[in-house]
Amino acid sequence: MARLFEYQGKTIIEDAGISVPRSEVISTADEAQKAAERIGFPVVLKSQVWVTGRASAGGISFAESQDDVFAHATRMLGALVKGQQVLKLLIEEKLDIASEYFLGMTIDDVRKRPVMMLSTRGGTGIEEIALKWPESIARMHLCPDRDIYDFEARDMLRRVGIRGVEQKKLIPIIMAFWAAARKYEARSAEINPLVQTKDGRFMAADCRMTIDDYAEFRHTDRGIEIAREFDRPATSLERIAYGIEAGDYRGTFYFFQMTRDFEKGEGVIGFHGAGGGGSMMSMDALLKRGYKLANFCDTSGNPPSSKVYRAARIILAQKNIDGYFASGSGVASQEQFHSARGLVKAFAEEGLSAPAVIRLGGNAEEVAIEILRRFSAYWPAPLEAYGKDDSPEFCAERLSVLLEKPDIASEWKRFDFPSSVSYSFRTITGRVDFDHERCLKCEEKPCIDACAKQILKLTDGVPRLAIAEDAAAKGRCTECLACELECHLLGNRGIKIELPISGLDDEAAS
Ligand code: SF4
Ligand code: SF4
């Protein structure tokens, strides 16, 4: 889910017709002074970082004069707030606050509907407020396909004791807030605090909105770079990973870095899961043994081999990992050999140098395990492959054993690719290249039988497409990698499946 913090959130709220304090975003102390002059004193300086609770972390200051603004802005810009560097500040009109309210919506997972919450006690800790002062909160379940009526808003206000002129002013705010949340397909949103100033105005002093990942493409006006719920700016590897996911609708690929700037030998493991619950158990099994996780990665929902290949290469781009652990749900209906082929290609191309344990539980897991074993001579590090009957605990224990005395081969086979290309066709995210000179000398031609989709056929003794090039490019070639892997096993060097990863080559993994 993409989170829109203060400034963007305010724009949405303002567009919906709810008043917000005058404010400007700046990135230098000089700009801060100019903005404060335009806005008028006193002002608040707010660090623009992706965290809540900024006030207690020194991320908010108040200024009465130009000298104050300059001093605070100089101190705050470049400083760390909860581990994040402040690059921008919001200079905002300081409100003369009489009272604070909370207005929010989220999804009620039990009722499977949005629910709105209104509290007469704004500020931090709405969960605590709900426990201590339940009478201060009113909830209302909402229909996602319609706006709310004024009598519904009035009823909420009445339940927390708001009547009279305040009620009249708050009804349109509640209606506009839900209309904005609906418009942007928010999974959660809040105005906190919604303040009443001493002169009787209501204003959204701070807001946050989380837009559903899958709705992001309908809201490109928001400029959401990565439709994920990150609590910090994305790393370059995360950006690269998101680019892959955004460009390939098949299956799911999620990648999030958890440990960075680590050295070899610190026990940091590259993690590759498949499916939420099984991945959690698998990560727990590693953490219990004292390992740290370099990343969380999920490839599930029947991803093609090419997507698993790219995921594995991104995990391996974290150069100092001590081990590679793949373990997921264990009962996946997707055919596990697709994942196995993707891993094999990545490990062979990158020359896997960290011990690996791969647990591919689910449909056709025996085939998947066999593929990994057949190719184990193609990288220097030891790799053990298991299925669903081998628990994540057992597999984590096996990785511990491998890491105790890593048996890294000094010589190993490598994937050898054609030196010249005489025939190519495009796939949905890449290209298949053949060296037909070599194919003519190949007696077995296993690539033809390996192609379960039967889109390759022998023509004049060499493999060519049996379908139109356009059809292959639109997905009839599923990028299953089977043809390439069978060719490598023969050592024939007749084919290469080129699967570019935009940005990875320039990435010096941090
Ligand atoms: S297995 Fe390799 S060398 Fe043999 S025909 Fe297929 S692509 Fe060509
Ligand atoms: S040509 Fe066939 S075997 Fe090769 S990647 Fe495409 S679908 Fe798979």
Can you characterise this structure?
The longest helix is centred in the middle third of the chain and has 20 residues, at 164-183. α2 crosses α3 (66-76), α7 (236-246) packs antiparallel against α9 (305-316) and α9 packs across α10 (336-350). The protein has 4 domains: 22-93, Dna Ligase, domain 1 (2-Layer Sandwich), CATH 3.30.1490; 97-222, ATP-grasp fold, B domain (D-amino Acid Aminotransferase, Chain A, domain 1), CATH 3.30.470; 236-404, Succinyl-CoA synthetase domains (Rossmann fold, 3-Layer(aba) Sandwich); 423-498, 2-Layer Sandwich (Alpha-Beta Plaits), CATH 3.30.70. β15 (268-272), α8 and β16 form a beta-alpha-beta unit. It is built from 16 helices and 25 strands. The strands form 7 sheets. Strands 1, 8, 9, 10, 11, 12 and 13 form a 7-stranded antiparallel beta sheet that branches. The protein has a 5-stranded parallel beta sheet with strand order 16-15-18-19-20, sandwiched between helices. 34% of the residues lie in helices and 24% in strands. The chain starts with a strand and ends in a 12-residue tail after the last strand. With 510 residues, the chain is α+β, with helices and mostly antiparallel strands. The radius of gyration is 28 Å and the shape is elongated. Bound molecules: iron/sulfur cluster (SF4) (2 copies). One iron/sulfur cluster binds next to α16. One iron/sulfur cluster binds at residues 432, 450-451, 453, 455-456, 477-483.
